[in-house]
Structures are given as structure tokens and as C-alpha cells.
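Just wondering, can you check both lines?
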Amino acid sequence: QAFIREKTLLADVAHELRIPLSALRSMLEVSLSRLRDAKAYLQDMQECLNVSREMQRMIENLLAMTRIESGRVSVHRKPVHLSELVDESWQPFRVAAEQRGLRVERQIDDERVVRTDPLQLRIILRNLFDNAVSYCDENGQVNITMQCQRSEIKLSITNTGCSLRPDELDHIFDRFWRGDPARSHRTEGHCGLGLTLCRELAALLGGRLEATCEHGGKFSITLTLNGVEVMA
């Protein structure tokens, strides 16, 4: 089974890298086919840079998952203000959310402190926020909510505009799986590894990641952390 998984992974990686590499080669060949003005060259360079970033993101996610699966990632727990970490992790996506007219509601206990690894949790949050902003419908809504019960914390990120079928929810954590290809123009840079990495990191922190799709197109990802120290 391990051999089959490795063989399948290599095939998937080769396929996923072949697409951006082919695009990169085509753009460079067209750019070099004749002399152009500076503005055209700058535009071509920007497009090549975007493709390069997509490949880099894919490789970094793969390396991170490899380190986790091989047991080479250590967890360093310390008291973390969850509200501050949520706000910090949201900042890179604030402008994109505003440009798409998204309404963002945040319901986080500002006084809540958890004992966890802030580095790993930050990676999870940024991937989940990226996913929510990218897949939310234009002028839609993103909700960030938290529930605390004793030593259990549930952090949910919900976005509108989901068109996934119930049977597709079982695949969203699979490597390189991407649903709703019709919206691929909105999800440039998503290679189908972000949620897989989040699930691996959640397990590393002693928690779990679950997804639901409600009636009306609301998609929710809930991060549950168990057995952590919670201090008010």
C-alpha cells in the first residue's frame, strides 16, 4: 500500500508540475519570438512570476507534508492569544476580500488564550482564510467564529458560494483534488494541497479538521483542538 501511495503521489506531482511548466515555457517562447516594447516584456515577466510562485507554493506544501509524515516536525507549545493570531493571519487576505466585496464577520473571544504551537496554527489559519476568500462568491460573506468548551476549542471559517456536492466533501482533503473547475479563474495558485497540509498539521497539534456544506451554498471548515490548556 505504501508503494502504491508513493507511486500515485509521484504521478500526481509530475502531472501538477507539468501544467505550470508548460505554461511557463509557452510564455517565454512567445515573448522571445519577436522584439517587444518594455511594457510587453514586463507583462510577460509578471505572468511568468505568477506561475513560478504557484510551483513554489506547491513544492513548499509537499515538503511540509513530507516532514510531518516522517516525524521531523516538532511542536513547541506556548500561550497564544487566539484573537491576535486570527487577526494577524487574516491580514494578507484583507485587501483581496475587500476587492471582491466580501462581508467578513468575526466572533472570537478576545480574552481567550490557548497553549499551542503558533507557527503551525498560523499555517493552518492562512490556508483556511486563503481558501475561504478564493472560493467565496462575489459580494459573499465569510464568517470566523469560535466555540470553547473546557479544553476543547472549535474554530470555524465559513464562506458562501459553495457548489460542492455532498459526495465531493469526502475528497477535499485528498492531495491535488480540486472541485468546481468552472471557477478555476478565481483560484489561481491553488494546487489542491492546502487543505491536505492543514489536516496533517491539525493532527500534529492533537486536533482534527472537518468540512461541511450546508443548504444555500455555505461551506465550513472547523478546526477542533483537543486536550489543550485554555486560560481566560
Q: What stands out?
A: The beta strands are 78-81, 103-107, 113-116, 141-149, 152-159, 207-214, 218-225, 230-231.
